[in-house]
Specification:
Alpha-Beta Plaits, 14 helices, alpha+beta, four-stranded antiparallel beta sheet, DNA polymerase, domain 1, Dna Ligase, domain 1
Length: 360
């Protein structure tokens, strides 16, 4: 392998970011299970402290479910302007080491330090310095993954959370992936993981033994991507000015559901989509509803509005309208998705944002 062409990618992921900011600013919350979430009847969890996660609470979970799992947790509403201000501090630190920064949300980003020309020799040392600067300047901890591509760096950043870092060197890639559970692959949810396990594929090493046509047969176009990832390949570059085309949320159903049952899923999807828009600091004016039938036929309906939709109620109203434009048949569906496009950065119209994105 020609080491001159191997990228050095760092994935920085803040530890329970929103909850950590709340605790930093209110020490009385330290050591207690803390959940940042809206107060509305359909609200979802924005983030949970590690104490709350021990009870099974996680991001995008309905607050009603979280309270059942962890009734003694402290629930506080999100303060996105404050989180954004801290995020700006963190990205200022990133910029000291590279100009190739690809933000994924307020609390995570990819950095390409391949061409770093400072005094530090190794990418792991750069990551260590970044994390130390974040701690000293913001009082918050971050975890980091260091690897030759984005796919591996993102997996590595989760390996020693919280407040740790992990390196996957080029010569270690195949050995690292061999025993990695398939559920650790970004994008493999519980339903897909279960399907893989039913096929006898439990580890990435198992996937690496499967030929491309077989993966494509079972997973469609994504099978091509799985074929490459199972071999540690990911040629995506860190894009400093990445233009996001759409923000979306999907639910892959454990059992097929009819259109009436699908309608009951729309409030959860609208709520999750608003939370994600806030995280990405984006807003959009075109709403798309996607349904996938039990035989993998995809149906989409879209509507463009004259202004950005930023509230759960507006997204839900649009989704309700779009579902009436779907075929009113007895068909059953295995997946439902809701997306927003025609995007613009939120800072162009800050006054349109609710101060509490987790509350309808």
């Amino acid at each position: 392998m020609d080491t001159q062409h191997i990228r050095k990618i760092i994935h920085i992921d803040m530890d329970a970011f929103y909850a950590s900011v709340e605790r930093r600013d209110n020490p009385n919350l330290l050591g207690k299970p803390l959940v940042v979430a809206g107060t509305g009847p359909r609200s979802v969890v924005c983030t949970a402290s590690y104490e709350a996660r021990q009870f099974g609470v996680h991001s995008a979970m309905a607050v009603t479910t979280a309270k059942r799992l962890c009734p003694d947790a402290i629930y506080v509403p999100p303060d996105f302007p404050r989180y954004r201000a801290v995020s700006v501090q963190i990205h200022t630190i990133f910029a000291r080491y590279t100009s190739l920064i690809e933000p994924l949300s307020l609390d995570e980003a990819f950095l390409d330090v391949t061409d770093y020309a400072g005094p530090l020799i190794y990418a792991q040392d750069i990551a260590q310095h970044i994390r130390a600067s974040i701690l000293s300047e913001t009082g918050l901890t971050a975890s980091a993954g260091i690897a030759p591509n984005k796919f591996l760096a993102k997996i590595a950043s989760d390996w020693r959370k919280p407040n740790g870092q992990f390196v996957i060197a080029p010569q270690q890639v195949l050995r690292f992936l061999h025993h990695l559970p398939v559920g650790k692959i970004p994008g493999v949810g519980k339903v897909t993981e279960r399907k893989m396990q039913d096929l006898g594929w439990h580890t990435v090493g198992d996937l690496a033994r499967i030929e491309r046509p077989i993966l494509v047969h079972h997973f469609g176009r994504w099978g091509h991507r799985l074929y490459d990832l199972a071999r540690g390949r990911d040629e995506r570059a860190v894009q400093a000015q990445r233009q996001r085309q759409q923000i979306s949320q999907e639910i892959t159903l454990i059992h097929d559901e009819n259109l009436a049952q699908i309608c009951l899923r729309l409030p959860e999807l609208a709520e999750r989509l608003v939370v994600l828009m806030q995280r990405k600091r984006m807003m959009g004016s075109c709403v798309t509803l996607k349904l996938k039938t039990s035989n993998f036929h995809t149906l989409t309906r879209s509507q463009t509005f004259s202004h950005p939709l930023t509230e759960v109620s507006a997204l839900l109203q649009a989704a309700d309208s779009l579902i009436t434009r779907m075929p009113q048949t007895a068909a059953e569906y295995r997946l439902i998705g809701l997306g927003i496009s025609h995007l613009q950065a939120e800072h162009n119209q800050l006054d349109l944002w609710s101060t509490d994105s987790c509350q309808p």
